[in-house]
Amino acid sequence: MVQTKLLQDLFFDGIQDAMIIIRVGEQGDYYYEMINHKAYELTGLSEENLGDKLTEKVPGISRVFVLDKFDEIVHTKQPYSFTMGFPQPNKETIALHVTLQPIELQESNFILVHARQMDYIEPAESQFWLDDQNLELSRQRYRSLFENNADAIFSLDLDGNFLEVNKAFEVLSGYKKCELIGNSAFSYIERKLQQILKKHFIKTIRGDAQVFELTVPVKSTVKKELHVTMTPLVIEEGIVGIYVIMKDVSDQRKAERELRESEERFRMIAESSHDLITLLDHDGNILYASPSYEFILGIHPDEYVGQSLLYNIHEEDKNKIISEFIRSINENVPITLEFKQRHTEKGWLWFELQGKPIFDVSGGFLHMVVVTREISERKKYEEKLRTLAYQDPLTNLPNRRYFQDRLSERLAEARRQDHSNFAVIMVDMDNLKELNDQYGHDFGDEALRVFSRRILNSLRSDDQVARLGGDEFIILLSHVKSKKDCVDVVKRLHNNIRKPIKIKGVTLTLTASMGLTMPKTLTFTEEEMIKQADKALYQAKQSGKNTYEVLLTADEEI
């Protein structure tokens, strides 16, 4: 039995009498098909009884009498009415006028039990009396549901005139109830909408309920998007008008459009971006991977979906990524970090990740948006800059800045171990100015390069040499146990440096002056160590060059 929402509303709430629809079974049995709220109140039946066979809970008469009357009605197809008394749970008794109405619908037979409370009658005439408080309460409930409903509700007669409107419709339309009742609903809307609404109106009064949406201007000229439901208003099996519910869905539709537009913008950005765009869930699993994954990493994005954010990430970077991911969600802060990720053919590449957590209006985590950009070239450039910052461009040896950092580290290590096992040698190439004046600066530069290589080749793997500038070099000797070890290195340097060399057809012998110092105390700074070695070098040059001097940090001469 097909029921529209309006018919159900009328049956359950709109009709103030007790109504029970009994279905006639194929074997002559009777079953509860529908029971309205008033009948629930009077009989004690509940929704759990729907579908059950007829029980003893029938208003005021015995089951045998009811079954006899039901059988008679099914046979004669004629209605039957009677008056009865029905005791209430509070042991009071009310008077009911009951009508049994046969109904045939879609080749099925039903009986409508209609029980209407009677007015008060004298006990001499009847033992029944009536308290109509429940009836009035039902009326009040219906009016409250109609008047206070948040949706705009109104009813129209068959000509389209307003019969009744609720407060919400007054607000929506901008008109007072007195301006609407009795007037045609179509006169309040613009012409281009009249044809649409009349089409739905005609279908509804023919019994076909309508559900649709439309955008209409209201009295304030603001346009509203409405979800409209039109249902036939049926009384005694005849359609006498229509019942209309209008729900304002403007904000909802606006939000849906904005969401679609946002999703479309995101899709266009993601599909055209040369960065990796990724969405992660709360557990760090990949919800979305942009098409750029394929040409940046050589892997189709579908392979990443469902994988952990650590997929193809270098092992040494995983812990910091996990830590930053958790911190970002817990503290609701964006994150930026660098890591290495594997390319199918190019191997490990450097990337920079920028992630931002997204939360809903209630503060619940939705996902994290991650934009990742390859920075391999940038890392190479940064490495080159670091190299240039610490490298002498002429000899490719480390420069003063690099040497000072290494010397500082060595001093700190000596202080921790409370003893020193290193020395500093300042080296000056003799006669560079004369070579530049006689043969030119290019010749002098080549002589410096030869000089630097000979120093480098004379040292052990743990030793460090740097060019300070001009003709000055400095050496950090590691793991020396005595002054004799230092002097042995100095002598080896002298022997290797003064071997004859031919530069641009000119054969010459290079020589060097050297100053050596060893820390006897650990209170010296690296700058003081360098000054001490420079002081020893000065003394060596004062002695006639091509020689060396050794000074202790306590100025004790060896």
TrEMBL record:
Pfam family, one: GGDEF
SMART domains noted in UniProt: GGDEF (SM00267), PAC (SM00086), PAS (SM00091)
This protein's name: Sensor domain-containing diguanylate cyclase
GO annotation terms (biological process): regulation of DNA-templated transcription
PROSITE patterns assigned to the protein according to its UniProt record, in alphabetical order: GGDEF, PAC, PAS
PAC domain location: 210-261, 335-387
All copies of domain GGDEF, residue ranges: 420-553
InterPro entries: Biofilm_reg_signaling (IPR052155), GGDEF_dom (IPR000160), Nucleotide_cyclase (IPR029787), PAC (IPR001610), PAS (IPR000014), PAS-assoc_C (IPR000700), PAS-like_dom_sf (IPR035965), PAS_fold (IPR013767)
Domain PAS: start-end pairs: 138-208, 262-332
Organism domain of life: Bacteria
